Amino acid sequence: MKLEGSCHCGAVRFTVNAPSPYPFMRCYCSICRKTAGGGGYAINLGADRHSLRVSGEAHLSVYRARLADGSTSTGERNFCSRCGSALWLYDPTWPDLVHPHASAIDTPLPVPPDRVHIMLDSKAGWVEPEVRDGDRCFDDYPDESLARWHERHGFA
Length: 156
Hints:
- It contains two helices and twelve strands, in the order E-E-E-H-E-E-E-E-E-E-E-E-E-H.
- It is mainly beta.
- It has one domain (2-152): Metal Binding Protein, Guanine Nucleotide Exchange Factor, Chain A, CATH 2.170.150.
- A hairpin with a 6-residue loop joins strand 1 and strand 2 (13-17).
- Belongs to the Gfa family.
């Protein structure tokens, strides 16, 4: 599925092809919720980095998070330097992938049949996850990938 996305002010626009377009995984880690979360979580999609096309690159900035052990993350969180909108995460550890934030996507996304809530041990105290029947919850990382979730549901 070809996804079109943009920041709030329109200075940065992008397109990317995503074989995994369902916004099913909510991440409550402190990095995601503080840099991109609106409901106390962020939703990242899986896409093909080689298909990423960007206009307005002059307005992109990158944040590399400080980890609990004091080291710096290899993940590059791309955002608009004008309005601060979180756009996508790229990590050179997985060079073929890019993870656009669902909140930056302008293309209508399909509604997932169930959701996965991850990093619940890191959620803010005021956040009450909206867990529905069929949802799965993890204190840390989940036991299946974005691609595997889509395959299991017949979406791949």
